[in-house]
Amino acid sequence: MMAVTLQQSSASAVVEARRAHNEKLARKVDQTRATWFPLTIMAALVALLLLQFTGNYNYLLHMVLFTASYVAMASGWNILGGFAGYISLGHSVFFVIGGYFSGMILARYGISTIITAPLAGLLAAVVGYLIGMVTLKVRGPSFIISSIALLMIARILFDNWELIGGANGVTLPVNDLPVQWAKVPYYYAMLAIAAFTIWASYKIKHSKFGLGLRAISKDEIKAESAGIDTRFYKVMAFALSAFFVGMAGAVWGEYLTYLRSNIFLVILVSANLVLMSILGGKGTVAGPVIGAILIVALNELFVATMGASEINILGTGMVMAVGLMFFPLGLVGTLARKGKLPRVLNWD
Amino acid sequence: MADILQILILGLALGGVIALMGSGLSLVFGVMRIVNLAHPSLIIGGAYVTYWAFKMTGVDPIVMLPVASLIMAAIGVLLYRLMFERETKSAKYSEMTVLLTFALAMMVEGLLGGLFTNTQRVVSPDYATDAFFVGDIFIPKGQLYAGIVSLTIITALSLFLKYSRLGYAIRATTQNREAAELLGVNVNFICILAFAIGIGLAGAAGSLVSFVFSFFPAKHWEWVAMLMSVVVLGGMGSILGTVVAALMLSVIAAFVGTWIGATWSTLTFFLALFLILLVRPQGLFGEKPEMA
Known about the structure:
The complex is a heterodimer. By secondary structure, chain A is mostly helical. Helices cover 75% and strands 1% of the residues of chain A. Chain B has a two-stranded antiparallel sheet. Chain B is mostly helical. Chain B has helices at residues 2-32, 39-57, 61-84, 93-116, 141-163, 165-175, 177-182, 187-212, 220-234, 239-259, 262-279, and strands at 131-134, 137-140. Chain B has one domain (2-291): ABC transporter involved in vitamin B12 uptake, BtuC, CATH 1.10.3470. At the A-B interface, helix 6, helix 12 and helix 14 of A face helix 4, helix 9 and helix 11 of B.
């Protein structure tokens, strides 16, 4: 009897000591983290609008907005593809769901998509949850193939669904702001969505949930035998990643002022999400952000110098192949492995 | 009754072509565990070879078939050495190769689009628009010839795999890579050979496709899910399974197309793919459940 209590108390003492030690390490990491860097960039982007007083910088605003939408979507994709290791090539389905849901509300009732964006995200998440329940039964190449099939099925449905305009799509009302300021609401909305996604992605990675996802990506069977409810974790990861993609899609639809399935529902959008995450470093918080900035800049360069969209596809494919073959860990991952990752980019 | 027979015949003729399109994919997966998403884009590459040969010299597409398949096989060897040989040691090999072939598909599409623009093209030899009539039923000559040629090629392939020494080696590698290597099979050479045959089959399929369907560089996205559904239903790696699945699905798609509507006939393939992955991921004739 005595011996048992003694053992228990010493065991709990060990646990206490370990917890204290872990907290000390976490505090140390927190102190060395350069949180000022993303905050400064955010502040600079918010202040960027002041440029409009000095001239017309609509192109610059458009580029930031475009990048922010991809930052949000790639970071969202990263929750499933990076943390849990399930690569989906069908995420543009959630982009189109978000876009059409909010867009149709705007067209029918005149409520701005910026207000309905969280709802669009929720709808995308619910759809993602249901699809995930089914497709996440398979893994590896089978999952990737099933995600492509999903995209094709969605494309046929959206092209033939007369209620939402079929293949012709829907034209959305244009806001009545002067040209100089017309982009402003969408600019801030998209920045907010992107910032929220990055914050959420950080929070998820450092939660028990995120730890479980990373365990799944390393070895699903071991993760399951360690007591992780892998099924629920995977499906939740799918739903969460759909949520962010759906929100971005909602605002993007109104910004474009029209919805058409051959803009949203193309494999190139999905491919871009994968490419951005992998090139930046999948499974890291900063990776998709850096990847998105790189790919958007590269695309812009291709279009500006060579024009044709075919060259753009060729270029995207080549960058993807070279990235996969020589830097499978991505920019952030490769630098981190070599211990050369600058502190300002270590957001994990 | 005549209606049903008619649809059945059209479905079977198309199914023969689709079987050839899928057989290369199946072979490459069986031997190397590469899910080749670039396969349909390489088929389109073969179709362009045939198209230009026909346009410039008037060579018949079926005569052009061996040439197109040799050209594509050579490209296949090059691609394997450049892109896939170095990945064999990678830990997440098959996932990696899916993404690599996806990138390759985009590269091929961009290249073809840049060179030949995105106009719809079709090779039109005399028989492509002609048909035989048996009573009330008509059989389009183009599709019939294509179906016969493709089933002949698949039969030849099966005989080669079954009875030749190299065929033994390829099947041994499919079954167990390490054991084959221990018994003296040069696995790397077999991989290159199988990849070359697979892409060569894509070239051959391209020649047939060039007069059966109209094609343009971005068309391969429609085919990739279609071929995947055929190959997955048949069981990845099984040529016989691919043929059976291709004939089955294209007959079903033909019925759906006539009775429900043409847009929904392609949906048959995608829905089938979805269902098979969930119900029986190893397919009809597949043995290895490791895909799941």
